[in-house]
Design goal:
heterodimer
Chain lengths: 111, 111
């Protein structure tokens, strides 16, 4: 079974804190993605990576950065958390031209 | 125009009913199509891929109409456990296997 694991299910952080969300996949997938999901807005792509050390901006990259130092790990970084970044964050991985597999999600609250 | 559009619903149907969802996509060069299911507060999971010839998996049938750029999902003999949000997903032909998600259609099956 493909497994995509996110480091936390629930996280509460203060405004201005630097936040790291970690994602690990065990299927040797080339592609990894970070989405956020908000009610009524669906899944929005923040960043994705198609190879180690490679990254591409998605639709809403502002306020975020990413790191992919190893193939299996893709980290999302909130440089200075703000309340409008309170959301559900979903990591996914895929191989080329196949479906994506998701982690269980991290519900982040910024207070 | 959104890249992938779905009717948000909700569709409220009784058990045993047949229900159909449609989804339209904007880029005629897209090649991969999927339906995902998402339960409340859970991650999306692949329900089925959509092939050009149409495909069926038990009570679920998916169809693709390239000329009109729409995808459909038909659920026959609805069960209470089918209640969920159904996400239409299309690949971005620009590369990197980026997937574009619709905002989802909510289905509620009642006794």
């Amino acid at each position: 079974d493909v497994k995509v694991t996110q480091s936390s299910r629930y996280l509460v952080k203060r405004t201005g804190e630097k936040v790291f969300l970690e994602c690990v996949q065990d299927m040797d997938h080339e592609n990894m993605f970070w989405y956020r999901q908000d009610p009524g807005l669906g899944l929005r792509l923040i960043y994705f990576s198609y190879d180690v050390k490679m990254k591409e901006k998605g639709d809403i990259p502002e306020g975020y950065s990413v790191s992919r130092e190893k193939k299996e790990r893709f980290s999302l970084i909130l440089e200075s958390a703000s309340t409008n970044q309170t959301s559900m964050y979903l990591c996914a991985s895929s191989s080329t031209n196949t479906e994506a597999f998701f982690g269980q999600g991290t519900r982040l609250t910024v207070v | 125009r959104k890249e992938v559009e779905q009717d948000p619903g909700p569709f409220n149907v009784p058990e045993g009913a047949t229900v159909a969802f449609n989804c339209t996509y904007s880029n005629s060069a897209s090649q991969s199509f999927f339906w995902y299911r998402q339960d409340c507060r859970k991650e999306p999971k692949l329900l089925m891929s959509v092939y050009s010839s149409g495909n069926e998996d038990g009570r679920f049938t998916a169809q693709l109409n390239r000329a009109s750029q729409y995808i459909s999902l038909l659920i026959r003999d609805s069960k209470l456990s089918d209640s969920a949000t159904y996400l239409c997903v299309v690949n971005d032909p620009g590369g990197y296997n980026k997937l574009i998600f619709g905002a989802g259609t909510r289905l509620a099956v009642h006794p």
